[in-house]
Amino acid sequence: MFGDDKVPERLLAALRDADKGRILVPPEVDATILARAKVNLARGRKHIVIPWVAAAAALVIAAFVMFTPTPKAREDVNRDGRVDIRDALLLARKISSGETLGSIWDLNHDGRVDHNDAAVIAAQAVKLTKGGAS
Amino acid sequence: MSTLNLFSASLRLCVSALKPCCYLMLLFLAAQLSAQQLHFAAFDIFVDSKNVPLAAYQLEFSGPADHVRITGIEGGQHEAFKTPPFYDPKAIQQERVILAAFNEAPATKLPTGKTRVATIHLQFTGPQRPDFSLKLHTAADSEGKSISTKATFTQRGLYE
Amino acid sequence: MNETGAPDSRSDEALIAAVNHGDTAAFETLYYRYRDWVVHMAFRFTGDRDAALDVLQETFLYFSKKFPGFRLTAKLTTFLYPAVRNYSIAARRKNERFVSEDAVSDMPAASAAQEGLTEVLAHLPAEQREVLLLRFVDGMSMEEIAAVVRIPAGTVKSRLHYALKALREDPTTKMLFEP
């Protein structure tokens, strides 16, 4: 006797047949939906300012957090005793200004000081365990 | 006959005694079912920097443990904060998340006033919406200076 | 899979990340990957082909408005199902018709048991039919069904139990339970 979580194969096959493809979506419907969706997507994209910052941060966050112990002091850019998003903003501004920055700011140890290092500070700031501003 | 009367009286007594127990059991079961009920909600997070252009914010959103699970995070309304904010991926399995974002754009391109900076999608259990809290850690202007701001949140419907 | 190109084997998470960065082809891949599932679900609820196609459009336009700036941490079907369900209910109310008998009887029955099943399914309460098909046709777990339909797991089990009971007890479908 079968319980409610397992049913015979015959019943399964019959249920699938009963529910099978009654609806064929015409290609013109696909085209209309995709065209309208693409308008929405383009509308949303127009106002992005720096999308690559989040993408770069997503690539480095897990590897950095897991494998690279980072001295807290270096990330405290404004030396207020806390590591928070203001430190990330300040480092990003220094980088964008073209200021020459020493390797001490290469927080992800990739040999360069760039916005990925600012993203490292941001990642540290939002960590739920120790290291964040809270 | 007297035996029948005695039996009948005993039966009535038992039923009377059991009635309140049955009601209590029904109430208990109803409470259990209510407690398991699953809800979905989206919370818009706002930061009001008044007339100062907002360049960065960091805040913490939390709910009661064991009742809340964060399922998605969206960016905000203004172009400066449209990209999803930074957050700890571990927060997705928890009831608490710290969100932060910054934008180096010139002050003229940053939002002022009350701005939706993010939306948090989550699911929670229980008969009614639990108490959530929002704590602003810091906010900054385009120079990186700390500014006075207010953070609030509102729940919205699924299809807004 | 893109209807006109090579199969795209990227995960849903990777495709969503790509859409967030302006890759409209990734959205197209997601559309074709879930199109049939969405329209099937919509047809289950509405019983009407045109309404199901409307719901298909509403659902994917709703989804497209989430970009850029959205991250998904559950299955995409979990995210889309409430939208499909609610747009379907709205479509039904708008059209003021739900012909469940037509919806399940326009397929030629392969056998008397199949025909009986179609009939019994049509007469099941909608909420029992929903859970039955999500479990055994879509292969969702009880927990997944509870999440998408937004009911307790106990209610899922109860609805499934009564749906199967109806099939077991009906003379035209009970032979489907014989091994």
Please, could you describe this protein's structure?
The complex is a heterotrimer of chains A (134), B (160) and C (179). Chain A is mainly alpha-helical. Chain A is built from 6 helices and no strands. Chain B has 2 domains: 1-36; 38-156, Immunoglobulin-like (Sandwich). Helix content of chain C is 68%, strand content 0%. Chains in contact: A-B, A-C, B-C. At the B-C interface, strand 1 and strand 3 of B face helix 4 and helix 9 of C.
| Global structural class of chain C | mainly alpha
- What Rg of chain C, in angstroms, do the CA atoms define? 18 Å
CATH fold category name of the largest domain in chain C: Rna Polymerase Sigma Factor, Chain: A
**First CA to last CA of chain C: what distance?**
37 Å
Order of helices and strands of chain B: HEEEEEEE
CATH superfamily of the largest domain in chain C: RNA polymerase sigma factor, region 2, helix turn helix motif
Overall average residue pLDDT of chain C: 81
Distance between the first and last residues' Cα of chain B: 73 Å
Number of domains of chain C: 2
Give keywords:
heterotrimer; B: alpha+beta; Immunoglobulin-like; 2 domains; 3-stranded antiparallel beta sheet; 1 helix; 7 strands; C: 179 residues; mainly alpha; Rna Polymerase Sigma Factor, Chain: A; Arc Repressor Mutant, subunit A; 0% strand; elongated; disordered N terminus
Short overview:
The complex is a heterotrimer of chains A (134), B (160) and C (179). Chain A is an all-alpha fold and 134 residues long. Chain A is built from 6 helices and no strands.
Question: What is this structure's SSE topology?
Answer:
The complex is a heterotrimer of chains A (134), B (160) and C (179).
Chain A: H1 9-19, H2 27-45, H3 51-67, H4 72-75, H5 85-96, H6 115-125
Helix pairs in contact in A: 3-6, 5-6
Chain B: H1 2-36, E1 38-48, E2 56-62, E3 68-75, E4 96-102, E5 114-125, E6 133-140, E7 150-156
Antiparallel strand pairs in B: 1-5, 1-7, 2-4, 2-6, 3-5
Chain C: H1 12-20, H2 24-46, H3 49-64, H4 76-95, H5 100-105, H6 112-123, H7 126-136, H8 142-149, H9 153-169
Helix pairs in contact in C: 1-2, 2-3, 2-4, 3-4, 4-8, 7-9, 8-9
